[in-house]
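Duplicate of earlier report; Tetratricopeptide repeat protein input re-posted below.
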Amino acid sequence: MKHIAILLCLATPALAECPAPPDHDVAIARLIEQLRAAPDQASAEPLNARLWELWTDAPDAAAQEVLEAGMRRRANYDFTGALAQFDRLVDYCPDYAEGYNQRAFVNFLRQDYAAVLTDLDAALELSPTHVGALSGKAMTLMGMGRTDEGQDVLRQALGLNPWLAERAMLIPRPGEKL
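Output:
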């Protein structure tokens, strides 16, 4: 199976130079403010879905195709194929945060936590308010037994989106109201 994935990567034509990622910073900031003000989970769900639409808006059609191919492979548990696609995406568009975030997700599923943290740090460097990357980092740190660090990162993520499902994993500090 590994050899097939390598052959597919070699057979896939090389991509040209990646343009800059779309600038959705203003729209993302608005959505985060709306999430913070959302009165309940039901109100937050469409806002969160819109965030994911923006994060997964690739720099061009070629990058979008590679991103979607990787996500399809991941959904079908073809982690080797998904990693090959996300490697290709990161190589092609090194300034696009979602390439790193998606590769991190595959590595999380594979329990390769060191690779996860490297990619999530890269994603967060490019997109500091990427709630998905923050919550992924929190889950990874806690999965590694680094609970205090994970809880701190989870609090950062919840500060941006208090309606994350991962909020159920928050351990209250003494005197803290949740």
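The CA atoms of residues 4 and 81 lie 9 Å apart.

Merging into the original ticket.
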